[in-house]
Amino acid sequence: MTPNPVTVKSLPPKENALFKRILKCYEQKLYKNGLKFAKQILSNPQFADHAETLAMKGLILNALGRREEAYEYVRRGLRNDLKSHTCWHVYGLLQRSERKYDEAIKCYRNALKWDSQNIQILRELSIVQIHTRDLVGYRDTRHQLFKLKPGQRASWIGFAIAYHLMKDYEMAFKILDALRNTMNQDNQQMQQGRKDATFEYERSELLLYQNMILEESGDILGAKKHLLDHNKEIIDRVAFNETIARYHIHLEEYVQAETIYRKLIQSNQENKAYYDGLTRSLRIEDEPEEKLKLFNELKAQYPRAALVKRLPLDFTEEAQFTDLLRPYVISALEKGAPTLFTDLQPLYKNPSKVVIIQNLVEGFVTQLEKNSKFSEADQERAPASGLLWAYYYLAKHYDQVNNTKTALQCVNKAIDHTPTLIELLTCKAKIYKHSGDIAAAVENMNDAREMDTADRYLNSKCAKYMMRADRVSEATEILGKFTREGTSPMDNLNEMQCMWFQTECARTYQRMGMWGEALKKCLEVDRHFHEIIEDQYDFHSYCLRKMTLRSYIKLLRLEDILHSHPFYFKAAKVAIDVYIYLHDNPLKNQASDEQNNQENLSPSELKKLKNKERKAKKRAELEQQAAAAAAEKKNLHQKQKQSNEDGESHHPDSAEELVPDKLAATTEPLQQAMKFLEPLLSLAAHNIETHILAYEIYSRKDKPLLMLRSIRRALKVDPNNDTVQRLLVKFQETMSTRVKTLPEPLPEFMKQELEKVYTFKKVN
Question: Where is the composition biased (Basic residues) (predicted)?
């Protein structure tokens, strides 16, 4: 953003014109020219300390990556004129560029003290406030913008969103209603400018967003009336029909809901939500016989729809289930669908259905081996591949029910039938993995990869298996075929935010006792999540301009729960486990233990150990050299680009470099572990591992009340978990001696709470 000074103090016309050219150069990213004009002003002894020019020079230097110089110039400008809103604005921009949002807000507020009606500063302040979820501040800033620029559509929308996020639905709806009326009047008066199609789309999105506010307020009847009143104005017909059908169900207007859901199914037969809505509208969701009649009717109406044939398998039993399953499986085997097992896997929660599936497919195999038909009554022979895919399914089936021996027999028969089918080798690798033989799993997955070395999925899967076998260098080499040439694969995978690889790396390094490397990968994943959160910054103003309001609200809510993602949980768990280990076993103690162990080794064992250490050291040195070469090449490229292109900005990564040895040598491991635990406590409380990890940290920090809280939360999630049982015993033993030393009134309180905990356990 470019500062927008209202007045430029004490500059004559010539210098004033130069200053305006500095602003223009910054806007157009012509940084070298901007510095040249700034030098012309500052070289004049009369204006050597001109505050705004110093600030602008600092802003340009920051864009060129010269951050320390930038701060020096901006602070000089502020010292020369503390009442300059331009200097405070620029200082806020610098703070924002370093993601110091609280400091940026302070700077913007100081700027507004001296120019309270500066639109640009108010806009930037509002963006920082919504980015940090300062909703009260955001509402106040948007209100001020609304008063200053009531003719701008974004002023109305931003003001309404502020009230919506604060759950003042009535005010948000009224503001949008007033905006819609204004838009209609403007459209009637408009003779040129915006196209009609654009206006129609924007009005439609505004109406749907209004309706979303009404629904969230709980006024379903009002939301339905609003939607029907503006039926003809809404362009997104799918969203309209889905929403109005949902309202009819909620208001128990089942006939209208049935009509709409049948219409939706006609347009898309592979959407499960439509079938669920139809069964609810007919009030037969708990009546299997009626549901079966409905699906038979739909099957006749849409014979090519796969979901119509699949859904009845979920609620039918015994003979009905078998009658429906048989043609469904035969059709998939004839087509050669590798996804058949994945499709039917949810049925394995029902033991009786597992038996039926097994008997059915085994019967197919017997008949296919005997007479190449699915049954003796069949007139036509089955395709030659039918037996192959039946073997494949049985291998998956027996692997699911933990019958490894039979699963291997089935997959080997399939391989004998068609040795060149890649899916068979990947299936065999997965069977070995589930049985615990990771070496055999890697071997088979590598054989599958070699059949098609250009397949990125197979290479990635093979690399993942190698990571499980602690073969990091081989896995990295394989993935290096798909990374950018001239850079270290590790660095490029980190740059691409390849988090599945980094979480696997972290687990592997943890198993190998490479604590620093494990922590480095976990922190890289943590940084990815912070970067994803930062990436939303550009959308705060974009979505208001493009009227993608419903998507914008969903984005904000997604970002609020981003740390609940499984990738973050995996990385956080590894990091916490490593930090706990480092707390219990500081590196100095580990070094002395290793020295004592070496003294007890035989000469041959000691020689092997030293060879292993030498190879590991050499491999680490090679990786460091490759990383250094890549970094040097990248810096050289940036310098060349900077010298050749005036319009390019260069923001160096302000994040501290992650050095494994330094990470492992931390003096406060529990404090570092808490940084990973806090997001889990708020966003992954449903996972029992969260509370187990919390207990382990709090027990080492000697926090009995927090230990008790962790125990109680874990019991609510799963009172029969083995680890929780162990912690219960451990906690009871600890408190039996510890409770006497607690200050009053904690001993009595802890006694009462412990009785509740163990009473809860007995009841459950």
Answer: 609-618
Ramachandran quadrant class, 29 (left: phi over 0; alpha: psi -120 to 50; beta: rest): left
DSSP character for 232? G
In a domain, 71, yes or no: yes
CA 422 remoteness from chain centre: 31
Measured CA to CA in angstroms, residue 449 lies from 404, 409, 461, 464, 465 at distances of 23, 22, 9, 12, 12
In order, the DSSP letters of 326-355 are: HHHHHHHHHHT-TTHHHHHGGGGGSHHHHH
Distance CA 382, CA 371 (A): 9
Answer whether residue 331 is part of any domain: no
The answer to whether residues 707 and 696 touch, using CB atoms and an 8 Å cutoff, is no
pTM for this entry: 0.84
Question: Shortest CA distance to 528 belongs to which of 501, 509, 546?
Answer: 501
Number of structural domains found in the chain = 1
The DSSP result for 43-89, as a single string, is TSGGGTT-HHHHHHHHHHHHHTT-HHHHHHHHHHHHHH-TT-HHHHH
d(Cα 382, Cα 370) in Å, to the nearest integer? 12
- The SS3 assignment for 116 reads coil
3 state SS of 444 = helix
Count how many residues are written for the chain.
764
Q: Which domain holds residue 29?
A: 1-116
Q: How far is CA 466 from the centre of its chain?
A: 25
Percent of the chain that is helix, strand, coil (3-state, to 5): 80, 0, 20
Q: At what angle do helices 722-738 and 746-763 cross, to 10 degrees?
A: 150
The residue type found at 549 is L
8 Å CB contact between 501 and 570? no
- Report yes or no on 634 lying in a domain: no
- Report how far residue 3's alpha carbon sits from residue 56's, in angstroms, rounded to the nearest whole number: 8
CA-based nearest residue to 475, from 454, 493, 487: 493
Q: How many CB atoms lie within 10 A of CB 622?
A: 11
Quickly count: other Cβ atoms within 10 Å of residue 641's Cβ.
11
Per-block mean pLDDT, blocks of 10 residues, the chain (764 long): 50 87 91 91 88 92 91 91 91 92 94 92 95 95 94 92 95 92 66 64 93 95 95 94 96 95 95 96 93 94 94 93 94 93 95 95 93 85 92 96 95 94 96 95 95 93 94 93 88 92 95 93 95 92 91 94 94 96 80 54 67 65 58 49 41 67 91 94 92 94 89 89 88 78 77 74 54
In contact, 710 and 698? CB cutoff 8 Å: yes
Q: In this structure, are residues 603 and 468 in contact, taking their beta carbons and an 8 Å threshold?
A: no
Provide the CATH number for the domain around residue 73: 1.25.40.10
In angstroms, the CA 599 to CA 326 distance is 68
Cα dihedral: 254, 260, 264, 265 (round 10): 50
- Asked whether residue 597 is domain-assigned, the answer is no
8 A C-beta contact, residue 303 and residue 269:
no
Q: Which of 362, 438, 351 shows the shortest CA–CA distance to 400?
A: 351
